[in-house]
Design goal:
Layout: E1 17-21, H1 25-40, H2 55-61, E2 68-71, H3 79-89, E3 99-103, H4 111-122, E4 128-134, H5 142-145, E5 149-152, H6 158-168, H7 174-181, H8 197-211, H9 226-249, H10 259-266, H11 271-289, H12 294-304
Parallel strand pairs: 1-4, 1-5, 2-3, 3-4
Helix pairs in contact: 3-4, 6-7, 8-9, 8-10, 9-11, 11-12
The structure holds zinc ion (ZN).
Zinc ion binds next to helix 2.
């Protein structure tokens, strides 16, 4: 298998958690082990590929590495089980520089378990890394999603999406289609054709004006129809998530903001602020989803935004 992780990912000390999403259980197993091996290897190359020769690599192949703890898909993962994982995370490593937890099928964890997990993913003890796997992103809480570095597999490649969308929407540029593709779960479905691209591009523009501080009053012009407001908040969430991930990995992460918009926003938003904004936009989104009055949602947003 070729390298799963882009170079720099494994070494970045700010990155504590990865998530590999694939509908195929065998790939989930294989790729999560591969990421763990890359983290634990004592002699990985610049592309973060494991050396396959050191004691850590050999033990990973033999499934006997004491610092790689696998919580299998068939194991119990109630909130108490997660709490015992958390306690284990605070114990010193056995022999490697890192301790790696592989949590299989985290999309099947209930909300309480995911929330317990969120706390440790946000601020894990030194040297502890988490690798989550999921068959789809859908059941993973947005708060968890915002804290992990997603590595996708078995998805259609962007080139084929671009070719497909161009058949029905020939006027869209490749960059625009890439932006739209973030609104389609897992890229597996073709319903990108049904997205309202004019609205999405308008909201991306608003997000850019707000985040680059060109127009901090832009929040006053958010849509007041519930569905439109929810879509707009989704765009804002994806934008700040892209900024947060890029800062955590030290490289430009692709996302709804194209490279020009990205660099305008990136200079103005710290990682801490990106996380705080993500939480705020998400809370507002959840309020809207819970059928709060739209004015109440906007009121909440204005009250808490800084
Ligand atoms: Zn090695």
């Amino acid at each position: 298998m070729s390298a799963v992780l882009p170079s720099g990912f494994v070494r970045n000390p700010n990155l504590h958690a990865y998530m590999f999403v694939s509908p195929d259980a065998a790939s989930r197993r294989e790729v999560s082990r591969r990421i763990a091996k890359s983290i634990l290897c004592r002699d990985k190359n610049d592309n973060a590929e494991p050396c396959e020769k050191c004691d850590c690599c050999i033990k990973m192949d033999a499934k006997t590495h004491p610092d790689c703890i696998v919580i299998g898909a068939d194991e119990k993962t109630g909130v108490d089980d997660i709490r015992s994982i958390v306690s284990e995370a605070y114990l010193a490593t056995n022999e490697a520089d890192f301790k790696v937890f592989i949590l299989e099928d985290a999309d099947e964890y209930n909300v309480q378990s995911q929330n317990a997990l969120l706390k440790i993913i946000e601020e894990p003890p030194q040297g502890v890394k988490f690798i989550l796997t999921a068959s789809s992103q859908g059941a993973i809480l947005p708060t968890v999603r915002s804290r992990v570095c997603s590595v996708s597999g078995s998805v259609r490649d962007i080139e084929s999406i671009i070719a497909e969308v161009k058949k029905s929407k020939p006027s869209l540029s490749d960059e625009q289609i890439k932006t739209l593709s973030y609104f389609v779960e897992g890229y597996e479905k073709a319903d990108i054709k049904n997205l309202d691209e004019a609205k999405i591009f308008d909201y991306v523009n608003k997000a850019q004006l707000y985040l680059s501080a060109k127009d901090s009053g832009i929040l006053m012009s958010l849509p007041i129809k519930r569905e439109e407001l929810m879509l707009c908040l989704q765009v804002f969430m994806l934008s700040v998530r892209q900024l947060a991930l890029s800062k955590a990995t030290g490289r430009i992460t692709e996302g709804v903001l194209d490279s020009t918009l990205f660099s305008q926003c990136n200079a103005k938003v710290s990682m801490k602020r990106a996380h705080a904004l993500y939480d705020l936009f998400e809370e507002s989104y959840l309020l809207a989803e819970g059928y709060a009055n739209v004015n109440a949602v906007l009121g909440y947003l204005f009250e808490n935004v800084r």
